């Protein structure tokens, strides 16, 4: 006799349910695999969740029950103060992602734990849902092709799985026309979960009952969502809207129900005495209830409309949270670094690529290249992974890491890879920035600038896009144009990479501001790049600090023997103009560097 799980599966799906024996075999296969990195405690959790599901007791899979039965917590267990179940469930999801990205890739069925619930999803690897997804995808492409708006489409949102197919198709047609696509939670949403964190922005609380104030509270949420949608790599959800600007339920309950990673909420306070408005925003991690970031903004009302204030603050919040080196990606990267046995999801490969692009080490390049190559195989429609792979091909060419030694061929591979990313998402900012960078290194400077400015037009809130444009303008000698972009990028970045400061330091040096150069160069060395230490050495040498200059030169040589051997060639590889190269090499000589017998990089 079929269990309740089998009956409900049949009702919700046009496919037959995997037999119990097949599911039990899959569970044992996972537990026996060395590619499943779960700890003994998480293995026990997985077995318990699956067995309870198969026994038809999935509705009893609550945090309290799991804590007491699996983790041995006492009867007075409080999930609000002890997040062990949420944390271990999240880690178990990572363990399963890693397993199915490796030896479990070709398994007939898949077991997953969707965010927001503890009951497993058990399904065949190939399902009829793919046909519906293709239909909706084609409809979305048709809408995008006829939409003249240059703005990037808003990110994917999720709906619960159990919708009748007819209703789901009508809903899909409706929401595609407004820029949103709703996916079923257990099928495509599971694939999307490997592409970045999920978050929602709640309506900001407002004081008083003024209708204009209440509208502003929900307006902040809408505008932040719109600005966040310009950054790729996030799954944005719409919580239940309110008309009063206040929340109808606990934001964390909404986060748990939707399976979100983060919640953004805040408040708006009007001070009649000073005729000012104060806005507070915060980012909260749903699993741990930890406040990750708080931003407070105060603006006078007298000279600007409320809508102008809303747009300015919303842009600032979205930029602080969503940018490549902002609050969320920094937190995700730190978490990935701290995990003892990280999984190999496509999103994590992209995160590793962003982290690598702070220091540009050869070892990091090799590991990330391998990760991204696997990512695009297992997730071939993930535009961000293709875009980052294009960056890595470019780095192989410009740093001399190409396997065949042909830099030009590496650049061509990069362009082809990025073109594929743009075929998946024509407004993908990461891909546009990579395309612009590759053209720069190929000497196509006008085309590089044109593409970079298009990326900036699509997302003016992205400091990394500003920095890329400023860097390329300055390295070609256009310091007056480029340096302000770099300074703005640094001012708007929580954790700016060192290379944001390189051309600012060089500008100081060319203008004889050696103390300012040293301060800027040392700030850039936080990521440990060889170019940063070469600039520190030049500044120390210019100020007569021989010992400090020698120490900086030694670090430069240790990190990049190639840069130490022929700095002129290394600087030229970045398409720096001759006056910059000559000045920097002269500065290195003053710092104590001596060139080898043969040097070819100088003009």
UniProtKB/TrEMBL annotation:
The chain crosses the membrane at residues 163-183. TPR repeats lie at residues 429-462. PROSITE patterns: TPR (PS50005). The keyword Membrane applies. Keywords: Membrane, TPR repeat, Transmembrane, Transmembrane helix. The keyword Nucleus does not apply. InterPro entries: TPR-like_helical_dom_sf, TPR_rpt. This is TolB-like protein/Flp pilus assembly protein TadD. It comes from Mycoplana azooxidifex.
